[in-house]
Amino acid sequence: MAEHNPSPEYLDPAKIIKIFDALSHPVRIKILGILYENRQYISELARIMGISRPLLYIHLRKLEEAGLVKSSMEISSDGKATKYYELTHFDMRLTPQMLHEISKEINLEDEKSQ
């Protein structure tokens, strides 16, 4: 089989697991779809999604920890602070060989203790 050397970021098991975890909930997939179209502030995004702001924050935190979204605070001319969320630039490709390489780095004993 041909030798393939994926970039180190793709081989970081913790990063891959965070991304998979972030993408494992349909609400978070929907958030990504909305943010693909345009950045949003929290209240507007909660209205679009039809969920509470506290629940939305939980989902956004998972997406931010995985590096899929980022936030920025902006101050309007009247002094009101508004937090915006937007997609980060990412390009994910997953192959069986990459999963094989990642699996070598995973220690199941560490996972059992959590």
From TrEMBL:
<dbReference type="GO" id="GO:0003700">
    <property type="term" value="F:DNA-binding transcription factor activity"/>
</dbReference>
<dbReference type="InterPro" id="IPR036388">
    <property type="entry name" value="WH-like_DNA-bd_sf"/>
</dbReference>
<feature type="domain" description="HTH arsR-type">
    <location>
        <begin position="8"/>
        <end position="105"/>
    </location>
</feature>
<protein>
    <submittedName>
        <fullName>Transcriptional regulator, ArsR family</fullName>
    </submittedName>
</protein>
<dbReference type="InterPro" id="IPR011991">
    <property type="entry name" value="ArsR-like_HTH"/>
</dbReference>
<dbReference type="Pfam" id="PF01022">
    <property type="entry name" value="HTH_5"/>
</dbReference>
<dbReference type="InterPro" id="IPR036390">
    <property type="entry name" value="WH_DNA-bd_sf"/>
</dbReference>
<dbReference type="InterPro" id="IPR001845">
    <property type="entry name" value="HTH_ArsR_DNA-bd_dom"/>
</dbReference>
